[in-house]
Amino acid sequence: MAPVLTEARSTVLTTALQREQARDLADALTGAEGDVRVSAVRSDREVVVPDEVFSVIQQVLHAMAEGRTLTVGTMPEALTTTVAAEHLGISRPTLMKLVRDGEIDSFKVGTHTRIRFAEIKRYRAARLERQRKAFDELRALEEAEGLD
User: Which of 75, 85, 108, 148 could join 92 via S-S bond, C-beta 3.0 to 4.6 A?
Assistant: First the structure.
């Protein structure tokens, strides 16, 4: 059975057999490093898959194998403040405060504020690291006080 593909959002619904095949392929490719050479039997062609693309393919295969929902898309380099706030899970006014305070770099396009996607990723990673550190400190304090 072929995957179901809808035009509007390119939604692909996989079958149990396809999930099993994805699991087998993911297992076979585990541990591969650098560029990977893929042979297409039907067209008798060989294609070199760059490491960056191979990483995406591996993530898709693992998600398929586990039966998870997966969205694959591209992100523009510069985001509006509304989209950036959505990616961070915060309100737009909170994002603008972070921009004003210099915690997130931004630039202007005319009168509109834009934020680079790489900056959003950087801030999200830094925020996660702060949260982990705070959690570890709290856990250490609980252990020191015997509050397990």
Answer: 85
Instruction: Record the tokens describing residue 89, joined without a space.
Output: 């899970």
Is residue 77 within 8 A of residue 117, CB to CB? The reply is: yes
Three-class SS of residue 47? strand
More confident residue, 68 or 90: 90
CATH number of 4-65: 3.90.1280
Average pLDDT of the chain is 85
What pTM, to 2 d.p., does this model score?
0.55
Burial (Cβ within 10 Å: 0-12, 13-18, ≥19) of residue 141: exposed
Give Cβ neighbours of residue 4 (< 8 Å, ≥ 6 apart). 11, 12, 13
| Whole-angstrom distance, CA of residue 57 vs CA of residue 68 | 15
In this predicted model, what pLDDT tens digit does every residue of 122-145 receive, in sequence order? Answer: 999 999 999 999 999 999 999 888
